[in-house]
Every structure is written in structure tokens, then in C-alpha cells.
């Protein structure tokens, strides 16, 4: 009986999170963990990356690879390219309900931008910049 109760509780919590997603603040805080992992790997400073969410994309290769690292860490990159289906799945799980559809629309529009670039870091960088340009109010980045 106790096992059934635990399973039901886990199911309910998971279902609530899946249905409503995280708040913008919760999502941002979760992504900060990835930021702290990727910054030292790519030798970038807070000054260089703190305003990406506000549309400040420095065209520096280390910053480009930092952005790619964030997406790799949240497991939406396959074969060094953003994977649209993986991103859409993460949006369904993590994003606040009120912005999910708008963000998905931007993802569908912007992920192909990466195919214009041979360098994987550049491709992800310009796709991310497109996501911001397409819908700045719903762009979330650590």
C-alpha cells in the first residue's frame, strides 16, 4: 500500500511539472548550474555572457562555444547540432505553460540557421541569436 502511495505521489508531481513547467525564475536558476559548468570550460567571463538573455551576443569564438556548451549540457545537441525534436521535448517539460508555444515556434524557425555554418559553435551561436531576435520577451538563457 505504501509503495502505491509513493508511486502515485511521484506521478502527480511529475504530471504537475509536465503540465505547468517551471516558472521563468526556476528555469533560469536551473540553467545557472550549466552556466557555472560551461564558463570555465570556454574561458569566458560574466561580463562577456551575462547579457546574452538581453540580446548582447559577442561575436567571439569562446562565447560561441560557451553557448553551444549550454545547449549540450541540457542535452539538446546531437552530432554537434541543435536537435529540434530534443529542444521541443525539453520545452514541453521545463518551460512555463504561457510561453511554450511561442518558444516552440521560434525554435522551428531558428534551428535551421545553424546549417549555414560549418563550425558547430558558430552554428549554435547564430541559431541562439535568431531565437532572441525572433521573440526577445520569451528568450531564456543563463
Describe what you observe in this structure.
By secondary structure, this protein is mainly alpha-helical. 65% of the residues lie in helices and 3% in strands. It contains seven helices and two strands. The chain has helices spanning 2-20, 24-42, 46-49, 61-73, 84-94, 100-110, 120-134; strands spanning 77-78, 81-82. The chain has a two-stranded antiparallel ribbon with strand order 1-2. Strand 1 and strand 2 form a beta hairpin. Helix 4 (61-73) packs across helix 7. The longest helix is centred in the first third of the chain and has 19 residues, at 2-20. The protein starts with a helix and ends in an 8-residue tail after the last helix. Mean pLDDT is 88; it is low at 1-19.
Largest sheet, spatial ordering of strands: 1-2
State the helical fraction: 55-70%
Distance between the termini: 42 Å
The portion of residues forming beta strands comes to under 5%
| Low-pLDDT sequence parts | 1-19
The total strand number stands at 2
Tell me the number of helical segments per DSSP (H or I, 4 or more residues long).
Answer: 7
User: What's the gyration radius in Å?
Assistant: 16 Å
- SSE class: mainly alpha
Shape: globular
Listing every helix as H and every strand as E from the N terminus to the C terminus, the arrangement reads HHHHEEHHH
Largest sheet entry: 2 strands, antiparallel
- Mean model confidence by pLDDT: 88
Topology:
Elements: H1 2-20, H2 24-42, H3 46-49, H4 61-73, E1 77-78, E2 81-82, H5 84-94, H6 100-110, H7 120-134
Antiparallel strand pairs: 1-2
Amino acid at each position: 500500500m505504501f509503495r502505491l502511495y509513493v508511486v502515485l505521489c511521484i506521478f502527480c508531481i511529475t504530471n504537475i511539472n509536465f503540465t505547468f513547467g517551471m516558472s521563468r525564475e526556476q528555469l533560469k536558476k536551473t540553467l545557472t548550474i550549466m552556466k557555472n559548468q560551461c564558463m570555465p570550460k570556454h574561458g569566458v567571463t560574466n561580463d562577456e555572457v551575462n547579457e546574452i538573455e538581453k540580446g548582447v551576443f559577442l561575436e567571439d569564438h569562446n562565447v560561441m562555444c560557451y553557448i553551444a556548451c549550454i545547449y549540450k549540457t541540457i542535452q539538446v545537441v546531437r552530432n554537434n547540432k541543435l536537435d529540434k525534436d530534443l529542444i521541443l521535448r525539453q520545452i514541453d517539460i521545463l518551460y512555463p505553460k504561457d510561453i511554450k508555444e511561442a518558444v516552440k515556434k521560434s525554435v522551428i524557425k531558428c534551428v535551421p540557421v545553424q546549417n549555414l555554418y560549418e563550425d558547430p559553435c558558430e552554428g549554435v551561436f547564430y541559431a541562439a541569436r535568431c531565437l532572441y531576435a525572433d521573440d526577445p520577451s520569451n528568450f531564456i538563457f543563463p
